[in-house]
Design goal:
Blueprint (H helix, E strand, L loop, with lengths): L1 H31 L7 H4 L3 H23 L5 H13 L5 E11 L8 H4 L7 E8 L5 E9 L4 H7 L4 H5 L4 E6 L2 E3 L3 E4 L9 E3 L7 H13 L1 H13 L12 H22 L2 H4 L13 E3 L6 H11 L2 H19 L3
Helix pairs in contact: 1-3, 3-10, 8-13
């Protein structure tokens, strides 16, 4: 009887612990950024098994949780983002946009020239949109590091839903002017589109200086999101050791998904449960869904996104709006 129970216990141990060990090895490699052979001392698992476990783990995370944790903002999300933006002096703001580079240590030699940019090492670019609570709403990963932020934007999918008419239309007013598209805060390299609000280089006068300080302060949301993502998952802070580009993409997207999981779990309900009635009644913000069905409408939406005149008008209105909130002194 004892011998039989012992054999059953061994079989149970073999059937239960190996999956747990594999997931533990994968998580240690993601969070600590250690090489595969270093987890053998703690997990007692081989290097090849650790690598295969990491590949399968990140692939499963992306396949199962992408729809929930990499979704586009829904109506409730947009309402919350707009309310937060209004309270910070930026009505219509949906987040901050920027790019980061991930060094690719094992980049194939034939690709070094294509993936080497201003830091003279092969890198892969990640473009994200992050909100005030560090939630990453948009991620676009995989372009070579020789490109700059403008090249990445031209290939990005950030405005696809907007151009196709599948994104909610955000209507708001600033300084007496009506606008129908939300915007992102961006740095100076991005083009002057109606969907971007950039800082003013070398501002002259108190109004523009106050606007530049407020914009640069609010735009730090995306910089903080990059820092927190790299602090939580050291594998994306250090050089990438894998050869396969698809594996690197799965690792990055899985880290972003788990980052959003942590943000959701640690979110303070008292800080985000905005009383929307407390917002200034003079501000008009509404959400509508209008589908673009005709080519002419698609082209018009594409033009509206890249409208320089709307960008300049919006920036001027925000300068006045923030100055009025500041007290005009």
């Amino acid at each position: 009887m004892i011998h039989t129970l012992s054999k059953r216990g061994m079989l149970l141990e073999l059937s239960v612990y190996p999956p747990l060990k594999k997931k533990t090895a994968a998580l240690r490699m993601l969070t600590y950024g250690v090489p595969a052979d270093s987890v053998d001392d703690y997990i007692r698992i081989g290097e090849s098994t650790s690598i295969e476990s990491l590949k399968r783990f990140v692939k499963a995370v992306v396949a199962i949780f992408s729809n929930e944790y990499l979704r586009s903002p829904n109506n409730n999300d947009i309402a919350r983002l707009l309310a937060i933006g209004e309270s910070r002096g930026f009505p219509g703001m949906l987040g901050s946009l920027d790019c980061m580079h991930w060094k690719w240590k094992n980049c194939p030699t034939a690709w070094h020239g294509m993936y080497s940019g201003h830091i003279h090492e092969p890198t892969i670019i990640l473009e994200v949109v992050a909100s005030y609570d560090l939630w990453i709403w948009h991620s676009f990963f995989g372009l070579p590091g020789s490109l700059n932020d403008i090249n990445v934007l031209e290939r990005s999918t950030i405005f696809n839903e907007r151009a196709e008419g599948r994104a909610p239309s955000v209507n708001y007013s600033v300084n007496g002017h009506e606008y129908t598209m939300g915007y992102y805060l961006a740095d100076g390299i991005y083009p002057s589109w109606s969907t971007f609000v950039k800082t003013i280089p070398c501002p002259q006068g108190n109004k523009k200086k106050h606007f530049a300080a407020a914009q640069e302060s609010a735009r730090k949301d995306v910089e903080r999101a990059f820092g927190v993502l790299q602090a939580r998952f050291a594998i994306v802070r250090g050089p990438a050791r894998f050869w396969d580009h698809k594996v690197l993409k799965n690792i990055m997207i899985a880290c972003i998904i788990m980052h959003n999981m942590i943000v959701e779990d640690e979110r303070d309900a008292s800080q985000i449960d905005f009383t929307y009635d407390a917002i200034d009644e003079s501000s008009t913000i509404s959400i509508s869904h209008e589908h673009t069905l005709e080519l002419a409408q698609f082209m018009q939406t594409h033009y509206d996104i890249r409208n320089i005149n709307s960008h300049c008008q919006l920036q001027s209105d925000l300068v006045e709006h923030l100055w009025q909130l500041h007290g005009g002194q």
